[in-house]
Each structure stands twice: as structure tokens, then as C-alpha cells.
Amino acid sequence: MSPTALHAVRRRVLRGDDPAISVVDPRDDDETALHVAGLLGERLVVTSSYYPSTSPVHPERVTYQLRYMATDFDVQGRGYGARVAEAAEAILRERGVEEIWANGRDTALGFYRATGWRTVPGSEHLSPETQLPHTVIYKSLLDDADLS
Fold it and tell me: Which of 20, 52, 105, 126 is most buried, most CB within 10 Å of its CB?
């Protein structure tokens, strides 16, 4: 999916629908970026973007950073975000990615914990973009046998 198709949901859900605030990541058009979205009928309701990035948690692993995970307000809590995340994780595993990480909004930590993410104690911070509380989170994409 084209990154520009994701901008409206990114802006509405993550930036208060403020047209002055950018929802573009400079890596959006990079061939290694992964954009996974969810449709309800023909309406885009979930966005997620993943970019190769060194993890602050396990820098020795092959890692991608999740950014712009957004589920439209009227469909939150229905499992659409979790399904999109599962699809993205399957693709990333096929690419050899071992871990994903993000600066998760504190208001969304319940979702992330419920879908297998872990928080990094002491990593709480205000996002420079939004000035909202965030915490560094990560999720291993390795099987337990691969973690030795």
C-alpha cells in the first residue's frame, strides 16, 4: 500500500487531525519499509508502518521500528489493529526480522501488552513530535528456541 494512502488515518488518529502537523516519515518510500493497513469494506481503518532500525533494546538483532500504528476511533477495540499487526509480523519474520520495537503511546500500552509486546522499564519519555507520554516497547519475532 502506498504510504500516502495512510496519511489521512495517521493524521486523524495520531495528530488530532491537524493539517499543519506532518505525518510523513522520510523512510516511507524506502524499498525496505513495510506498510500494512486494514480495510473495512473499502474504507481504510488501520495503518502501520515498519522501518529497518537498530533497536535500543537488542541492537545485535535484525530489527524494525513500528511507527504510525493507528486504528480509526470508531473501530478501536474490535481486533482490527491486532490482525494488521499479526499480518505485518508474519511478513517481517519472512524477511528475517528478529525483533520489532517502537515508542509506544502510553495510552496504547494495553493494546501492545495484550499483543505480546514488552515495555522497557525506565524508558518513559515525552514524544518530541506530540509531547505525549511514550514508553519504549519491543516484541521478539523469534521462536523461544531461537532466543538462546
Answer: 105
